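hi! just following up on the protien thing from before. the input was this:
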Amino acid sequence: MNLVRRRLDYAVCVFCALAAAPLVLKAQNTTYDGKKIVAIRFDPANQPVDLAEINQFLPLKSGQPLRQADVREAIARLFATGRYTDIQVDAKPYQDGVIITFITKNRWFVGQVSVRGDLSSPPNAGQLESATRLDLGSPFTESKLTEAVTGQKHLLEANGLYRATVKPSVDWDKDHQQALIRFQVDSGSRARYARPVFLGDLKMDTERLLTATKLRRWLIHSWKPVTQTRTRRALDGLRDLYQKDRRLEAKVSLESMKFNIEENRATPTFHIDPGPRIDVRSIGLKLSQKRLQQYVPVFEEHAVDDDLLREGARNLRDFLQADGYFDADVEFKPQHVVNDSATIDYLINRGKRHTLVHIEISGNRFFTTETLRERMFMRTATFLTFPHGRYSDNLLSRDEDAIRSLYQANGFRDVKVTHRVEDNFRGRATDLAVFLKIDEGPQFFISDLQVEGIERLDKAPILSLLSSVKGQPFSEYNIAVDRDAILGLYFAKGFPNATFEWNSTPSTQPNHVDLSYTIREGQQQFVREVLFNRDALRHTRPSLVYRNIQLNPGDPLSPTAITDTQRRLYNLGIFARVDAAIQDRDGATERKYVLFDLEEARRYSIAIGLGAEFARIGGCNYCLDAPAGQAGFSPRVSFAITRNNLWGIAHRISLQTRVSTLEQRVLLDYTWPHFRRNDNLTLNITGLYLDSKDVRTFTYKREEGAIQLQQKVGKTLTFQYRYTFRRVSVDQATLKVSPLLIPLLSQPVRLGLLGSSIIQDRRDDPIDPHKGIYNTLELGWASHIFGSQKSAGPNYPGGDFLRFLARNATYHPLGKHLVLARTTQFGNIASFLYSGNPANAIPLPERFFSGGSSSNRGFPDFQSGPRDLETGFPIGGNALFFNQTELRFPLIGENIGGVFFHDFGNTFATLSNLSFRVKQRNYQDFNYMVHAVGFGVRYRTPIGPLRFDLAYSINPPTFFGFKGTEQDLVNAGVNPCSGPYASLCTIQSISHVQFFFSIGQTF
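and the predicted 3d structure came back as:
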């Protein structure tokens, strides 16, 4: 609409100027016609279009004779630039010739539109800016400014701000012909609702209507402040009320909103036409009202007409056919209104229930049957997912169209697809079969391709993009792909008016065509200058914006580069809005201004979260009752605050906290994106405090500082380089091991680690992958060279070790519905302080504690690997190996899926203890592979699948566990299981059955 209006304005101006120009010349002196043009001047001398560009397209030239036709053409071309609102031509004699002067009046264009003042939301500043309808880069007039003020006042009044004032002001940027428009808004006080007035034949008590509007507070019965949202909800509430009364055609409208300035109240007047009560019934098959409301659109549209009723019949038929009633027939019979009521009957004959057991495709030689089936919606019956198959007349028609389109896209333009539906298939009355027959016809090829019209761009790169080349199948689909590729390239190079035409003629060879493309390039446009509203950058450095602009003066005017600049500015995370436009897009000038209107986002953001964990999460912190874990519940609360755009250069600092019965965590993070002006580098500096009870053997405190540089290499590969310094201490009171080991394992440890990671992600969907690979590799070196403390003695934990952890995950689609997913993890910690017992050289919190949903579902979380030989609690290991395999499949409908899984692996004391045997040798042996199988359910949600897994451990570990108190363990001495406390030593084992509930796929 704006484009039509703009072109109409240009046409009117051109018409007036062309009509006036000959009169001006004639009034001056008709003898000027034919005189030599001595000079061409412009008033004012500083023109909005470069004089060099004007001289290129202006038909009047110095030294040539003056002709009125050339004057008219000159005015038309100047108006076509879109930069002028008025043009006059003046001719003055000079010596034996004439001097031509163009007297011009420039056009103004909308630049930044901003709203400031005392604002009471709603509406907010952004809504008020939108209400102006002043589009960035569009022509500006005083009448548009008046309309903008009117639109803002209407919006303010709709939100109860009847006393608001709007004062516009315009700053004129003469260098760029921009009108910078500011609106000073004083919202004033917001009005409250008064008791509504209801007009019409209500058919209902006014108190019920008043309650439905929800304009009055429930308890104290005071009236709410007026907002547009509340008024709209009042209308919806009245419609819903009549809907519940079965008045489907009820019409509710806001007739007026009268404002009482003395009381500062607004009285809404609603006009109601209730219409008759309408009952929608199903005859022949009993359907609930909920089901009818779901499929018959008259309930949603609040109207009753034949089109909606026919759509309801189709929906009901599709529903029945999807449930196996493929012969279902649905018709409707509307009744006339009698005594303020009417009935609409859907006559349903669902027929007998069928099962689609067979789909056969014949006649296909070019494509395999599997390729065609991948594009079909019809499905034969499968257990649970489609117990009766998926079939309907509509689906059959869609499948035929899909197959036909596939063949046509590959040169079979005469392909025919027919079908035959066979009931009573193979003698079973309820079985149905569909037979699709394909008559491929001849395949047409391209004998010759001619591309004409490429003059200003390099032809070779364009030809390399084409799908339709000599010897390839001929199809209009490929031609459309070529058209999009060619025009996309031309648009990116600044040719907005480029066009593409094609033609085909039969070739001398049978089933071949000669193809020709004709391209009309049009005028190439360039960037004159890139402008953005620096005044709006209250906290951001302009240099940051300049660094992310992908356009420079003189570059081709590329919409792709403009969009890329928008994306880059948004990705900085500091702008709430980035609008982009080309000033006077339709003007016929070669060089144009590119405009960006920026609005900074809030610098502070706060997030609060509530959650819980329910699983086998271990026993109490100060007892020895549950070395194998027990069912438990852990609520948690999280809070995060982020300060964006630090220093005005898009840096970010955030504080994240989490409190639960299992851990208390505080994380302070400083992020430097685009480190050293490199888009692929991000620097992070973090500080962490963690008081964790996640590992059931002990509670520990961790204080850590880290610096990390992340480098993206392409779309799929990421490198991370980091240095970490941390101090970890174990609470002796929670260490559930032999008392003789407590002084050893509770020593505070100071660690300095130099590490790196490699991440390769080629999954199709990180939330719910169906194909691709995901690899990670982590290396860490802890050494006193980097600040680690040395070992306190030959048997005490030290800070010199090498840590390695690798993971590989692959996803393989099996057909259209099955996915085989697997992941393997392997890790090792190698100590530089052997001292006869490598396990003792690794600090307890640095060891691998694994098991659970992310490694082996045959264990509760963190319960795999070596255990204390007296208490039975896990003490972690220095090596791990886990493999998880899942077969993922649809289970019920489209959103519920299932998995069968097999996990095996364990955590081992050392790498030399890694073994693939499956039997435990004795109660002290934990270095073997534990296997588990199970079944899981996945429910699809926008944030990832909800996951429930039930696992059965085939060979869980058995061990000695001490059932007494910690004091009993101390009193028992060195060998508690052979003295007076021997009765407290019992044989225990990990439960065969484990369960897990979380969000997201396992891997």
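Residues 108-186 form a domain with the Ubiquitin-like (UB roll) fold (CATH 3.10.20.310).
The longest strand covers residues 631-646.
cheers
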